[in-house]
Amino acid sequence: MEASTDRVAEEVERYAPVVGAVIEQVQRVVVGQEHMVRGLVMGLLTGGHVLLEGVPGLAKTLAVSSLAKSLHVSFSRIQFTPDLLPADLIGTLIFSPKDGTFSPRKGPIFANIVLADEINRAPAKVQSALLEAMQERHVTIGDTTYELEEPFLVLATQNPIEQEGTYPLPEAQVDRFMVKIRVGYPSRENERLILDRMGTSDPDLVIDAVLSGEELLAARRVVDQIYVGDAVRDYIVDLVQATRTPEACVPGVGAELSGLIEYGASPRACLGLLLVSRAWAFLEGRAYVTPGDIKAVGMDVLRHRVLPSYEAQAEDVDAEQILGMIFDHLPVP
């Protein structure tokens, strides 16, 4: 085990700076928002799709497009609108009158990185087509099924405050996103830096492509080998169990939490915590996961997988407050 851990540590030392260069490139353009940028990169490292939620103007779309420019991979952006059709996303069959045959025309989903901008503006059929491609990693056009090329990652954005003309994603569909990142306003210092850096009609901001698809897949293989001990694995399971039966898992406040949770996190949350915590440890330059890594990524993995009860909503208690109580009171190994 020690020799294997040493080998993984060497691989982490080799690849972590290369992936870190991607973060540096994105931050040439995106001021602040370190948590969002790191969350996007962790999605790259785990193959997990990312949902960004925040009010307009917080550089969500800019961050995704900048991330794509820093990689030697294909990129497509889909602006979701109420009149969008599934065929606009996955493609369709085109009839050729010349020879009387149909040929496939592939849609923008056939890219390594797909930006689903304002995903909650499209109707359910379009969202379903996208989320099926996310889950199954293939698309069917006519009678033919096409595999989506790896790496394949969907980075979606949504506006939490505007309700007119939107179709909110059901919880079962949101659960397919590995993480959901809340994007907040920048600090005063960062906002002043934005003013200085972007305060012209054509800011001269250049992003270099520093990571190939092959290198990304190699980094993923390293992330998959990062050591997660039994105590940390038990902590992951305890966290997820605490969102379902807090009265049996969380000392002190379990009974109070029980009435605030309608539905707890799915088993997919366990896998998400395992994978994303490995990516966090990788970015920290370590070949092993600590309970602190679980806490660092836990809110992003769990916030969209815990459904507060009507009682919680009446008391103005949201999923993040519930999770905060669980993290504060659940024993840490």
Strand content: 15-25%
Q: Helix content range of the residues, please?
A: 40-55%
| The CATH superfamily title of the largest domain | P-loop containing nucleotide triphosphate hydrolases
The separation of the N and C termini measures 21 Å
Characterize the overall form.
globular
Question: What features would you highlight for this structure?
Answer:
48% helix; 333 residues; globular; two-stranded parallel sheet; alpha/beta; Helicase, Ruva Protein, domain 3; 15 helices; 13 strands; Rossmann fold
Give a description of the structure:
With 333 residues, the protein is of the alpha/beta class. It has two domains: 2-198 and 208-219, Rossmann fold, CATH 3.40.50; 226-329, Helicase, Ruva Protein, domain 3, CATH 1.10.8. Helix content is 48%, strand content 16%. It contains 15 helices and 13 strands. The protein has helices at residues 2-26, 34-46, 60-69, 86-90, 124-136, 171-174, 188-198, 213-224, 230-242, 246-249, 254-258, 267-283, 291-302, 310-314, 319-329, and strands spanning 50-53, 71-72, 75-79, 91-96, 101-106, 113-117, 138-141, 144-147, 153-158, 179-182, 211-212, 261-263, 307-308. A hairpin with a 4-residue loop joins strand 4 (91-96) and strand 5. Helix 2 (34-46) packs across helix 12 (267-283), helix 9 crosses helix 12 and helix 12 packs across helix 13. The longest helix is centred in the N-terminal third of the chain and has 25 residues, at 2-26. The two termini are 21 Å apart.
